[in-house]
Every structure is written in C-alpha cells, then in structure tokens.
Amino acid sequence: MFRPSFLAALGLVLLMTTSASAQFRGMRFPPSLQNIFMLRGEAVQKELGVNDEQKKTLSELAAQLQAEAMEIISGLQDLSPEEQKEHMPELMKMVGDKGKEIQEKVDKVLDQKQLARMKELSLQNRGAAALEDEEVAAALKINDDQKAKLVAVREEGSKKMEEAMQALRGGGGGGDAGDIRQKMMDMRKELGDKALAVLSSPQREQFEKMKGAKFTFPPQRGPF
User: Fold this and answer.
1) pTM of the full predicted structure?
2) Higher pLDDT, residue 215 or 94
C-alpha cells in the first residue's frame, strides 16, 4: 500500500514544472503536462500577454488535467510495490496521452505568437531535460550516442531525487525542508551541467537560441 506521504509527493510532482521534479522515481513527465501547469503562473501569463478569457480557459484546462492525471496515478495506491512497478509505464502513458489531449486544446486558446513564446519558456523551464524531446533532439541533431548519455544522466538524477525524497520523508538521513530544497537546487544545476556537456559547442549555442529571451521564473514554492 502507498503511504499517504508518497501520494502527496506524487501530487507535488504533478504540480511542479521543474525538470528534476519531473524525473521523480524515474518518471519522465511529458512536456505537455509541464507546459500546461507552467501556464497557470501569473508571471508566465503576463509574459505571454494572455487576456482574461484565455486565463479562464487555461485555468480550467489545467484543473482538468490535474484531476484526471491524479485519478490515473491513484490507481497505484492499492497495488503491491511489484505491481506498482509493473503498471507504472502504462499509467504514465495514459497520463501522457491525456496531457497531449489537453495540450491540443491549449494550442487553440493561444495565438501563434503566444505559442512560439510558450515553447521558448518551456525550454527555459525544463532546461537540459528538454534535450530528450524528439522535436528538440531532431532540431539539434543529437546522435544516438549522445541520447544514450543523456538517458544515463537522467537516470542518475532519478536516483538522487529518490534519495532526497527519502530524506525529506525522514527515511534517509533527515534534514529540514530548507536544506532539502537547497540540495535539490544544487542537484538540478549539477545534472543540467552534465547533460549540456554531452552536446557539442554548436549544439549548445543553438539550444540557447531556441530558448529565446531570458525569462526569470518566480521562486518555486513548496518543500522543494
């Protein structure tokens, strides 16, 4: 059985947009989920210049996705650890498909200029984790060897994320929330640097251009 704290942690992961959070327990949440939750932020909405009607629709779509994604994942709570591991890929695909479905609706809410800027903000928000996206990998011409190295970096991040979460829950050495938050910020930077190091100099330059004008996201709230 899942402990309530673990279900709460899964909820936090769905609500967060950082690349490291998206890799919690080895789960790589699709860009569509992260983009939709990113669009709920007032600062992002202001940057995109969305109007009141668009804000209302985006909020409704995000709430719909959050509810449906959590309903899908909650199906794991009555399973054994072995069954959870077995069913996780299937459920995550269901969540991903739901995200794509909602993303298509979001794309109809925003105009072309807003969509283009959203993609730039998405890359900035997700950082090096976006390098595994098919569209990004194709644009940067990332080869198979580089893809394998990026997966290795992500798996390393997943392991460290789990260790940090165990510490947060008091099962891996303790530490207060502030300490955990700082450790995870340091971890994200370290892993991001490792992933970017996989790219060639021209690829890194192109990736930076794809991010567009730098945007400063508001400080992240929550335990990490």
Assistant:
1) 0.77
2) 215
Cα distances (angstroms) measured from residue 82 to each of 78, 86, 141: 12, 6, 38
Residue with tokens 């909020």, as numbered in its chain: 59
User: What percent of the chain has a predicted confidence (pLDDT) above 90?
Assistant: 42
Q: How far apart are CA 192 and CA 189, in angstroms?
A: 5
Measure the CA–CA gap between 180 and 172, rounded to whole angstroms: 11
Give the burial string for 95-108 (b: 16+ CB within 10 Å, else e). Answer: bbebbeebbeebee
Q: What is the pLDDT of residue 220?
A: 63
User: Above 70 in pLDDT, residue 186?
Assistant: yes
* Angle at 152 (CA atoms; ends 148, 156), nearest 5 degrees: 170
Which has more confidence, 64 or 169? 64
**What ranges make up the beta strands (E) of the chain?**
none
Is 203 in contact with 141 (CB distance < 8 Å)? yes
Total count of residues recorded for the chain? 224
CB proximity list for 43: less than 8 A, separation 6 or greater: 217, 218
| Residue 78 DSSP code | T
CA 84: distance to chain centroid? 21
